[in-house]
Amino acid sequence: MSQSSAMQSHNDSSNTADSQVTAANAAQAEGTERNQRATPSNHATGTHSTGVADHGRWSTRRIAIYALFVALAMAASLIELPIFPAAPWLKYDPSGIVCLIAGFAFGPYAAAIVSILGFLPHVFTSPWGALMGMLVALAISVPAALVYRRKRTRNGAMAGMALGMAIALVVALVSNLLVTPLYAHMTVAQVAAMIVPILLPFNRVLEKLAILTVPDSKDQAGEQHSLLDERLLSTPSVAVGRAMLTGGDMAEICRTSLLQAMSLTHKWDEAIADEVNRKEDAVDHYEDVLGTYLVKLSAKALSREDNRTINTLLHTINDLERISDHSVNLLKAGQEIQEKSIHFSHEAIDDLSVLEAAVQDIVNRTVDAFQKNDCYAAGKIEPLEQVVDGLVREVKTRHIARLQAGVCTIEYGFVLDDLLTNYERIADHCSNIAVAMIEVSEDRFDTHEYLNHIKNGESPSFEKRYERYRGRYTFEPGPSGTAAAPEQKK
Fold first, then answer.
1. How far is it, in rounded angstroms, from Cα 296 to Cα 315?
2. How much is the pLDDT for 195?
3. Residue spans of the chain under pLDDT 70
4. What secondary structure does DSSP assign to 64-128, as a single string?
5. What pLDDT is stored for residue 277 in this prediction?
6. Cα three-residue angle 304-308-309, rounded to 5 degrees
7. Which of 197, 246, 260, 265 has the smallest number of CB atoms closer than 10 Å to its CB?
8. Torsion of CA 444, 445, 451, 452, to 10 degrees
9. Distance, CA of 168 to CA of 8 (rounded, Å)
10. CA atoms 376, 382, 383, 387: torsion sign
11. Using CA atoms, how far apart are residues 429 and 363, in angstroms rounded to an integer?
């Protein structure tokens, strides 16, 4: 093993340039710029993980795939090519590409594991080189994976690589200044003198190459469905993991589309409206492609865990698509408000803000639980859905009171009814997704029995969560001057 240095950060970047298409095809998907909130793990709740991403317990499939990447990184690290005769201790090896692909495909934990274990064979033959190789591989792959996980687009990949290269360069330069003199028989001044003429120019060239090789496609749907390569059907466990990732991307598009559509009911923006319509088309295509892929996959020999994943997706992708449909309905309501110059009373705006906060909460919780296959978090959805139902009824009641008092108009009432109907149905679809996750994880699917069980006072946790949410989303004093709270659950 050669003694790695600042060149290692450039090597990883160059590897990226040669294989970014592979990384994109393996894991690229559109997401949102919002942070993912952490929720309790499946391990803590006894539920079953269905993916190989950075959450849930260590399933056999997850261990096997990580082991495969580690083995590839070990093999790649044995390929050592000198780059500069003046610096014979700077050698290129393609192991960084494996770390980066693992991070893009399965998250930062995977990148960290592959970066560390991939260099273990060299610890005994070249400990300093192994240490520096690990540090630089971690510095470039983990930040890139973190950024890409939050924004699964071409720009997200570029931003992640740029951040990773910057961090890796700093790590490599500092480690070279401290470590290289110990084994290369050079002074610190001699090592420092190589930074400008050798290391920095090469870094800029590789950065440009990496950016140019990232696929640039405006077809979001087609870009995402590269994940669903039918060749993966020959290895069902990997295909199931890809299908789950694609389902999570579909959920993310639904979330961002809904939030954008809700903003249009307050302030109309033609560009945002166009984006919502484009996302609706993408979600429709997701449902078609993913559904077809799942049907083909279900015909394969699958493990019990993989069967659960497929059943969860089959039971939920339609609800995700319906949430996207309601986003378009909200867009139309916002357009009507803008075209008719409808102005709401301050009381009506305050009421809607409470309801909208609850709807955003339930959608965010549902998407997060779905992406992480977190059945514990899914158990918190139904109590919140009951609160949303109560809020909808209360908004209608308060509107009638204001209408009688001459504060609101009938025209506003028509638009209000459209908004309330869509908000209530969005919450219903969130409930469907959560219940499907829970029931499939227990190898059953009787939603009516489950809902009757928790709503009839047989679930203390449901009652506590309902009361907590009910206290969180309350209205200002109503027309009568008394504080208004959501109605009791049905």
1. 16
2. 60
3. 1-59, 81-92, 154, 180, 183-186, 188, 190-227, 409, 411, 445-458, 477-490
4. HHHHHHHHHHHHHHT--EEEETTEEEEEE-THHHHHHHHHHHH-HHHHHHHHHHTTGGGTTT-HH
5. 94
6. 120
7. 197
8. -70
9. 8
10. positive
11. 9
The full length of the chain comes to 490
One-letter amino acid at 66 equals Y
pLDDT of residue 89: 56
Tell me the sheet residues that pair with 81: 92
Cα separation, 378 vs 163, in Å, equals 34
Q: Taking the C-alpha atoms of 331, 334, 335 and 337 in order, what is their torsion angle to the nearest 10 degrees?
A: 160
Element (H, E) at 284: helix 270-298
Q: What pLDDT is recorded for position 227?
A: 57
Torsion of CA 351, 354, 356, 359, to 10 degrees: -130
Neighbours of 198 (CB within 10 A): 19
Tokens coding 71: 């083995």
Q: What's the one-letter identity of residue 297? A: L
Positive or negative: CA dihedral 39, 43, 46, 50: positive
Whether residue 229 contacts residue 22, with contact meaning beta carbons closer than 8 Å, is answered with no
Closest C-alpha among 357, 354, 358 to residue 381: 358
200: how many CB neighbours lie within 10 A of its CB?
14
Evaluate if pTM is beyond 0.85: no
Q: Which residue has the tokens 């489950």?
A: 450
